[in-house]
Design a protein that fits this description.
The complex is a heterodimer of chains A (197) and B (104).
Chain A (H helix, E strand, L loop, with lengths): L17 H29 L7 H4 L2 H26 L3 H31 L8 H28 L5 H4 L1 H31 L1
Chain B lengths: L2 H31 L5 H23 L7 H26 L10
The chains are: A mainly alpha (197), B mainly alpha (104).
């Protein structure tokens, strides 16, 4: 059976192993996805007669807390990859476990935030601001869920590859990390744009 | 200790430094909100801090500071298309017919 080529060694033409080039192409498409929604936000805002200050509707301490949580999860994610580079599988599992846990904390806080809005009868159809708020944060939350699923697989059953092909497994974690850092990066812009401006 | 062990240790120390910088910048982002400057200045300050934070994440955690040229090319293309989209949006704003009702 033929094996998938260039999972570890870089191609001569790109200088990259295939998955790395693939994830960057995917992330470029994600830039356009979120970029389209950010430009929608700009269009709605500049054409609005009255745009609310985010802090008057949203809970800034909760948003700031979630920012710190996501940044911390990015650190633990990159530490998980560095642990594999160092050959320390136990540390990898600990760091990836922390990443998953922090992602779940983020989602719980987000659920509390959404719940508070709904209990005050604030829904996407209530105003243009809330419509774009729920769209942007909802899409971002879906990305968090996707990351949790992938990372949980690598923490659990997917980790078996470490024994059979450690280099390829390390590359897989690097790819998962690139995605996760991008999700963090999007939130870094979402927080001030929606909560503080 | 091998050279690679040393490199990893150095990398890990860098990650913690970046973490500290990101926390400080997050505090600055929230703090700037309480200065009650005009909305234009507030937008510039908030987006400037967010850009610095994003650059720190991209350059260090995503290792963009030492990547292959092909990846830079992909990202430059994404940036160009994103900029084009924003230009279209702004030009659309300037071509709204007079008398059109605003939404809220």
């Amino acid at each position: 059976m033929d094996t998938i080529p260039y999972t570890v060694e870089p191609r001569i033409d790109t200088g990259l192993y295939n998955a790395k080039f693939g994830i960057w192409l995917f992330l470029a498409s994600e830039v356009m996805l979120f970029g389209a929604l950010f430009s929608t936000y700009v269009l709605l805002r500049i054409n609005s007669a009255d745009w609310p200050h985010g802090a008057s509707i949203l809970n800034v301490p909760m948003g700031a807390f979630n920012t710190v949580v996501l940044i911390a999860s990015s650190v633990s994610m990159v530490l998980a990859w560095a642990s594999l580079k160092d050959g320390k599988f136990g540390m990898f599992r600990l760091n990836l476990g922390i990443t998953i846990l922090l992602a779940l904390v983020f989602m719980v806080v987000k659920a509390f935030e959404y719940g508070a809005k709904f209990s005050h009868h604030l829904f996407p159809e209530t105003s243009t601001y809330l419509a774009i708020y729920f769209t942007l944060t909802g899409l971002h939350a879906l990305h968090i869920v996707g990351g949790v699923i992938v990372n949980s697989y690598f923490w659990g059953p997917g980790a078996g590859m470490w024994k059979s092909d450690p280099q390829r497994f390390t590359n897989r974690i690097e790819i998962a990390g690139l995605y996760w850092h991008f999700v963090d990066l999007v939130w870094i812009f979402l927080f001030p744009v929606l909560y503080l401006l | 200790m091998s050279a690679e062990d040393h490199d990893i240790k150095k990398e890990v120390n860098k990650y913690w430094l970046v973490f500290g910088a990101l926390l400080v910048l997050t505090v600055l982002t929230v703090g700037a909100n309480y200065l009650h400057v005009g909305i234009k200045l507030a937008i510039i300050v908030a987006l400037a801090i967010a850009t610095v934070k994003a650059s720190l994440v991209a350059c260090n955690f995503m290792h963009l500071s030492s990547e292959k040229k092909l990846i830079y090319l992909v990202l430059v293309m994404a940036a160009v298309f994103f900029a084009a989209m924003m230009v279209l949006i702004v030009s659309a704003y300037h071509s709204v017919p007079e008398g059109l009702h605003h939404v809220s």
